[in-house]
């Protein structure tokens, strides 16, 4: 029983005792005939009320503990259920990846051996080959997301500014190879001091930033500029990627980081819907967060925040508003 319960029980008992004493001494002339039984009754009444309060308080305390135990057990059960569901999903995707790999490889090999009889057949073969590769890549990406949620990751000092610079360069080069020209600017602080380091897996962080910058380039109109900005605040390092592309409708913002999340407006563009889900998993595994701000028809800004854990950069490639085309 709690201390409050004991005090509640003591109050009526004290009242009963006080009443008995008062009644016993209030009228000395009739004490033997009248006050003794009344005092006794008052004392017994106080005791009875005290017992009721004690039992009620004990019952409430027990009920509260039971409710807390049930809530804890329910939460634990839900957590186990989520873990089991996640494990089942991961095993299913791994099996699917394994089962599809050989057939898709065989299909693509067979397509490569076909000599097209004309332009129409050439286009048809190209379409089948591209869709086969897309299916294999989609399942592989799903498997990668599932593995990242559980796998051990490297913990080493990482210069996030340099990783951002490398990601920008890789995305711009890949876009140019596909005939897409976009200007991507990179602005990292140099004064009074550069960005501090973070701790994590440099390859995974590069993958996350490449996905975000790649999305910005893919969904931006020609001749537009994608801005990549670095900053530090309150012990957090932030890389924000902003574009003036399609934007995300308000009703879809809550699901952009889900697996296979793609807007109907972007179905005509290449992509699997896995990229931002992968970004979320990578960033959260590093103790950080990822947020999105977007207005449909105006553009989108995605911000990755990671805890700063090391010395500030001393300069290098990508510092201070470097642009890439």
UniProtKB/TrEMBL annotation:
Membrane-crossing segments per the record: 7-26, 38-59
Enzyme class of the recorded protein, top EC level: transferase
Superkingdom in the source lineage: Bacteria
MF terms in GO: ATP binding; phosphorelay response regulator activity; phosphorelay sensor kinase activity; protein kinase activator activity
Keywords noted in UniProt: ATP-binding, Kinase, Membrane, Nucleotide-binding, Phosphoprotein, Transferase, Transmembrane, Transmembrane helix, Two-component regulatory system
Keyword Transmembrane helix: yes
Record's subcellular location: Cell membrane
Pfam families noted in UniProt: HATPase_c, HisKA
Primary site of residence: membrane
PANTHER family the record matches: SENSOR HISTIDINE KINASE GLRK (PTHR42878:SF7), TWO-COMPONENT HISTIDINE KINASE (PTHR42878)
Protein name: Sensor-like histidine kinase SenX3
């Amino acid at each position: 029983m709690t201390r409050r319960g004991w005090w509640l029980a003591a109050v009526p008992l004290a009242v009963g005792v006080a009443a008995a004493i008062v009644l016993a001494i209030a009228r000395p002339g009739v004490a033997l005939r009248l006050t003794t039984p009344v005092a006794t009754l008052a004392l017994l009444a106080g005791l009875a009320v005290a017992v009721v309060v004690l039992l009620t308080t004990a019952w409430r305390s027990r009920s509260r503990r039971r409710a807390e135990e049930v809530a804890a057990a329910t939460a634990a059960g839900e957590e186990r259920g989520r873990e089991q569901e996640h494990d089942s999903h991961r095993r299913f995707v791994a099996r699917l990846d394994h089962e599809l790999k050989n057939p898709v490889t065989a299909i693509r090999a067979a397509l490569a051996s076909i000599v097209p009889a004309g332009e129409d057949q050439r286009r048809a073969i190209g379409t089948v080959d591209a869709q086969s590769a897309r299916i294999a890549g989609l399942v592989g990406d799903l498997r990668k997301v599932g593995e990242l949620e559980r796998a051990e990751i490297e913990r080493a000092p990482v210069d996030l500014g340099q990783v951002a610079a490398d990601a920008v360069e890789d995305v711009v080069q890949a876009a140019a190879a596909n005939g897409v020209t976009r200007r991507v600017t990179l602005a990292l602080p140099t004064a009074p001091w550069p960005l501090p380091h973070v701790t994590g897996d440099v390859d995974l962080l590069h993958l996350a930033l490449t996905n975000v910058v790649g999305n910005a380039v893919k969904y931006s109109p020609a001749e537009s500029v994608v801005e990549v900005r670095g900053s530090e605040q309150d012990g957090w390092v932030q890389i924000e990627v902003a574009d003036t592309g399609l934007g995300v409708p308000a009703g879809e913002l809550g699901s952009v980081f889900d697996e296979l999340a793609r807007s109907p407006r972007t179905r005509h563009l290449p992509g699997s819907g896995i990229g931002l889900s992968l970004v979320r998993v990578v960033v959260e595994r590093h103790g950080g967060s990822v947020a999105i701000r977007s207005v449909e028809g105006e553009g989108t800004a995605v911000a990755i925040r990671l805890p700063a854990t090391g010395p500030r950069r001393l300069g290098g490639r990508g510092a201070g508003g470097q642009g890439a085309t």
